[in-house]
Amino acid sequence: MNAGERHLVVGVDGSEASLRAVDWAADEAHLRGVQLRLVHACPSERHEDATPAQDTGRAGPSAPQDVVGAATRRAHARQPGLEVASTVAFESPGRALTEAGRGAAAVVVGTRGRGGMAELLLGSVSLTVAAHAECPVVVLRGSHDNQVTPPVHGKVVVGLGDGAEHPGTLRFAYAEARRRGVPLEVVRAWRRPARERGDLPGSVEATARAHEERAERALDEALRETPPDVKLIRRTVEGTARRALVDASHWADLLVVGARRPAGRAGLPPGRVAHTVLHHSACPVVVVPQRT
Question: Is residue 154 predicted with pLDDT exceeding 90?
Fold first, then answer.
């Protein structure tokens, strides 16, 4: 284990979706050289909320220790040399994962379903953890193919917005691109204010270009300290940040967004942009909290 790194947490509930999350988290923990911690929350002794896993051909596990046992075996099958620990918490999943995230490198949460309406409905657990966790939260949206490496699309995407979230969000994105050995695409959206859209035809192109140039200067400023070993793809896009990032997610292995957290105010929604991509991204999303 790398001395400066922390453990990685993944939520498990006995469902096939959570076992796919274990696959992804095991790969990520292996890349980081850290311990993987499995957290199973059961606020009561009944487990009717978990969909039985189908990987063994038998009825899915129901007892807490059976749930974490199956997940541990899955992690070891995925990454044989990985250090794996497990915890059973007798409280709500959102609270258990938020608490487990204290001191963690990240918390990984799976979503049920691989397509259709099931995939469009983000669970309350994912939203709760994204709103409360002190560490980055990975929500496995879209067709992540159960893997971190080898990359499917060969690209990590990060959204660059306004405000103090840039440094921490970019540092996380740089590190993820470096670990995977892929380029980092930095997306900055821009829009002309509504009051400028009624200008004379001859001025429309000029005003649009002025706003695009401001977006490009913002990229220049934010990316001045990019590590030399990270290959950058810079892109400015006309339109909303939400639409630009959802579109970019179709060609990415990971989408990174920041979420402002005013000091002393926990439990705030992750913001409009993060909220949208959490519901509609075609790839896994990382929400990186930033204290302001």
Answer: yes
- CB-CB contact of 42 with 91 (8 Å): no
Q: What is the mean pLDDT of the chain?
A: 83
- Give me the sheet containing 8-11, strands edge to edge: 84-89, 36-41, 8-11, 106-110, 137-140, 285-291, 254-261, 156-159, 184-190, 232-238
Q: Bridge-partner residues for 9, per DSSP?
A: 37, 107
Dihedral angle of Cα 210, 166, 161, 114, to the nearest 10 degrees: 140
8-140 has CATH 3.40.50.620 classification:
yes
Where exactly does CATH 3.40.50.620 map onto the chain? 8-140, 156-291
Summarize pLDDT for 217-226 with one digit per residue, the tens.
999 999 999 9
Q: Which long-range contacts (CB under 8 A, 24 or more apart) does 111-114 make?
A: 111/17, 111/139, 111/140, 111/141, 112/15, 112/17, 112/51, 113/17, 114/143
Identify the bridge partners of residue 232 per DSSP, sorted by sequence position.
184
CATH of 156-291, one of 3.40.50.2000, 3.40.50.720, 3.40.50.620, 3.30.530.20: 3.40.50.620
Structure tokens at 234: 């810079």
Contacts of 82 (CB under 8 A, 6+ apart): 26, 29, 30, 35, 36, 75, 76
> What's the predicted TM-score (pTM) here?
0.85
